[in-house]
């Protein structure tokens, strides 16, 4: 493992950039300060938005496949720096190195996807009711896209938005989490390397602004930001959604989840155990798609709890740069105290708790390592319906399949879901209109770890947005319906007659 300063140097940071700022960056690995970076003022932020808008007016004139060429170059930079950027992600947000590298791979994947997409930004041709007429749709860039992102995927979520927004002809202003500014600055540096290798000179179309929610609010309120794509808590979504709606801006929200698995008695239990473990404790329970609720058929409830309790004791918690470790630290003290509060509430609501305690307090007094918690609940109580961003898995039993589906959907969030079953009827019902009400519904796969090819996002308090694959690109463009008359007549739609005076 390279020393921390070496990582920053290899990613192009100068000493000045990481030592002279007003924003302290602390590593969750041991709580020490690893850098100080400069935040932006209100004036600097509004100036950046102005520059981004001017740049978008030029960038939109460049043909989309040419725009794709620049994203291809960016993907190459990411390939070359996958290891080192993965290490920075681990140091700054605490996920294990394997997942840090995985996050960069996800960025590479979306770049590849966007390059192909740059030749497929197509609209429909529609039959016109009028003779000698043709109707079609064309798609145009929006202008400036504002991206607000969360700490737990400090690079990939931006990349999902960025790669698509750029090939769609927009410029992008990114406000990363104040907990992970270094990763954002590193991504911007790699982007600037790609721009240098691009075959033509272009205005600056990518910007990073650093600061807390107040700086984010400037983006949210600014009339020149055509689309706000915001990833984070439901609380943040509730604060910004009315503001963007109030100025008729476009909004893409990726908010909290409370993801469940229905485990039926016909399931392949070994497969299910592996899926539960990765999706409930991986990334220290700090994925929006983390498995938080396990809904188990009554007949296999006690064996399931026993098996899980054994696995939970065996799972290795520790320094995330150690390759044997599966679970790193929580992001900070606030995350730890939220976890403890939820465990206490669960106990009051009748829960039986296994694990959940703090580990390595002596070695790391300023870092928050925990044993993941497994909590057997008598029913789906209030605390279970709430997203706690930590490794807590609530386990509840069901009698009838209908009851399982009802319990599954009876939460305010609607991001990801899955069923483990070998019963075709149950699997199909889970995926049908009367099954899971989430944006992501899987069979015999856990709820976390989505591929970039599908549209990613969820319903209800998760915000309704879709990012990444499928036709999510449409979020970053505006649609125009065009009708072309190639006849010498002027027939009106709906057969309306509107003759000029003196004409028959
Ligand atoms: P957070 O809501 O505290 O912060 C997210 C971002 O929003 C940060 O950049 C923050 O500065 C900014 N922000 C907060 N309030 C704002 C405001 N009023 N105006 C403008 N900007 C504001 O979230 P977090 O703790 O960083 O991340 C964890 C949360 O994110 C969890 O709820 C998790 O489920 C969610 N998340 C969702 C997805 C998804 O795709 N659905 C992905 C990752 C994380």
Explain what you see:
This protein is of the alpha/beta class. 38% of the residues lie in helices and 20% in strands. It has 15 helices and 23 strands. It has helices spanning 4-10, 15-19, 42-59, 64-80, 82-93, 97-117, 156-167, 181-197, 213-221, 234-246, 269-281, 301-314, 333-348, 401-409, 424-431; strands at residues 23-26, 33-37, 125-126, 133-141, 144-148, 171-175, 206-208, 225-231, 250-254, 259-263, 291-297, 352-354, 358-359, 369-370, 373-376, 392-398, 413-414, 416-420, 440-443, 455-456, 459-460, 467-468, 477-485. The strands form seven sheets. Strands 12-15-16-11-10-18-19 form a seven-stranded mixed sheet, with helices on both faces. Strand 8, helix 10 (234-246) and strand 9 form a beta-alpha-beta unit. Helix 4 crosses helix 8 (181-197), helix 5 packs antiparallel against helix 8 and helix 6 runs parallel beside helix 7. It is globular, with a radius of gyration of 25 Å. It starts with a helix and ends in a 19-residue tail after the last strand. The model has no long low-confidence stretch (mean pLDDT 97). The structure holds nicotinamide-adenine-dinucleotide. Nicotinamide-adenine-dinucleotide (NAD) is lined by residues 148-153, 157, 175, 177-178, 212-213, 216-217, 220, 231-233, 236, 239-240, 254-257, 288, 387, 389, 415, 462.
């Amino acid at each position: 493992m390279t020393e921390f300063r070496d990582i920053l140097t290899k990613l192009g940071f100068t000493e000045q950039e990481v030592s002279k700022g007003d924003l302290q960056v602390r590593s969750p690995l041991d709580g020490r300060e690893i850098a100080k970076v400069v935040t932006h003022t209100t004036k600097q932020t509004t100036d950046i938005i102005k520059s981004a808008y001017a740049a978008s007016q030029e960038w939109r004139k460049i043909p989309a496949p040419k725009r794709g060429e620049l994203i291809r170059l960016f993907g190459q930079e990411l390939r070359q720096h996958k290891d080192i950027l993965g290490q920075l992600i681990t140091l700054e947000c605490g996920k294990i190195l394997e997942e840090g590298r995985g996050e960069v791979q996800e960025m590479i994947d979306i770049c590849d996807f966007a390059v192909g997409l740059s030749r497929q930004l197509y609209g429909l041709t529609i039959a016109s009711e009028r003779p000698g007429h043709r109707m079609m749709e064309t798609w145009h860039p929006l202008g400036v896209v504002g991206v607000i992102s969360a700490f737990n995927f400090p690079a990939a979520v931006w990349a999902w938005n960025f790669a698509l927004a750029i090939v769609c002809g927009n410029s992008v202003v990114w406000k990363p989490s104040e907990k992970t500014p270094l990763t954002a600055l590193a991504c911007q540096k790699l982007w600037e390397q790609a721009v240098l290798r691009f075959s033509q000179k272009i205005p600056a179309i990518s910007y990073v602004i650093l600061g807390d929610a107040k700086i984010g609010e400037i983006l949210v309120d600014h009339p020149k930001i055509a689309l706000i794509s915001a990833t984070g808590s439901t609380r943040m979504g509730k604060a910004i959604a009315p503001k963007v709606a109030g100025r008729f801006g476009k909004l893409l929200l990726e908010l909290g989840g409370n993801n469940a698995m229905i485990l039926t008695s016909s399931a392949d239990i070994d497969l299910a155990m592996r899926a539960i473990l990765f999706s409930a404790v991986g990334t220290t329970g700090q994925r929006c798609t983390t498995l938080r609720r396990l809904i188990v058929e009554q007949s296999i409830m006690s064996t399931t709890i026993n098996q899980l309790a054994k696995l939970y004791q065996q799972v290795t918690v520790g320094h995330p740069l150690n390759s044997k470790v599966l679970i790193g630290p929580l992001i900070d003290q606030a995350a730890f105290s939220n976890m403890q509060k939820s465990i206490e509430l669960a106990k009051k609501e009748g829960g039986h708790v296994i694990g959940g305690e703090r580990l390595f307090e002596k070695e790391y007094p300023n870092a928050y390592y925990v044993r993941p918690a497994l909590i057997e609940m008598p029913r789906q109580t209030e605390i279970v319906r709430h997203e706690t961003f930590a490794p807590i898995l609530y386990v509840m039993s069901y009698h009838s399949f209908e009851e399982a589906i009802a319990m599954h959907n009876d939460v305010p969030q609607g991001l990801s879901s899955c069923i483990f079953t070998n019963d075709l009827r149950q699997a199909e019902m889970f995926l049908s209109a009367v099954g899971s009400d989430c944006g992501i519904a899987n069979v015999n796969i856990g709820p976390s770890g989505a591929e970039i090819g599908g549209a990613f996002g969820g319903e209800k308090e998760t915000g309704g947005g879709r990012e990444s694959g499928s036709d999510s690109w449409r979020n970053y463009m505006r649609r125009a319906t065009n009708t072309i008359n190639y006849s010498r007549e002027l027939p009106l739609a709906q057969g309306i007659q509107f003759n000029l005076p003196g004409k028959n």
